[in-house]
Amino acid sequence: MEILKKPVLTEKASILTEKSNRYAFKVDHRANKIEIKAAVEQMFGVNVESVNTMVITGKTKSRYTKAGNVTGRAPKYKKAIITLKDGETIDFYSTI
After folding, report:
1. Are 43 and 35 in contact (CB under 8 A)?
2. CA neighbor of 4 nearest in space, from 71, 53, 50
3. Does residue 9 sit within a domain?
4. For the chain, what is the mean pLDDT?
């Protein structure tokens, strides 16, 4: 099971990073906080202070087609907010 799927690189997440040394990740919906902490520490070589998780429900989407209005839902996902110890950072762009 791949625990960390991808980082969340939104404007809100970058403000969180700048102000309080916190990073957001999309994670596997079966992963718990202990597994997420271990995965981040092993992948990036940092010390994690705390992990907060939340399940984000998918937005409803609709579009107009020849067949009329088609409505659906974006998939839900689990998001983890990782707080690192003071003085530590994660550089997402160094591995590209």
Report:
1. no
2. 53
3. yes
4. 93
Predicted confidence band at 92 (pLDDT cuts at 50, 70, 90)?
confident
Range of the domain at 10: 4-86
Domain count, the chain: 1
Q: Read off the CATH number of the domain in which 15 is found.
A: 3.30.70.330
SS3 46: coil
pLDDT in tens, 2-44: 999 999 999 999 999 999 999 999 999 999 999 999 999 999 9
Alpha-carbon gap, residue 35 to 31, rounded angstroms: 6
- Listed in sequence order, the residues at least 6 apart from 49 whose beta carbon sits closer than 8 Å to its beta carbon are 83, 84, 85
Band (70; pLDDT cuts 50, 70, 90): very high
Q: What are phi and psi of 61, to 5 degrees?
A: -120, 145
The answer to the question of residue 91 being in a domain is no
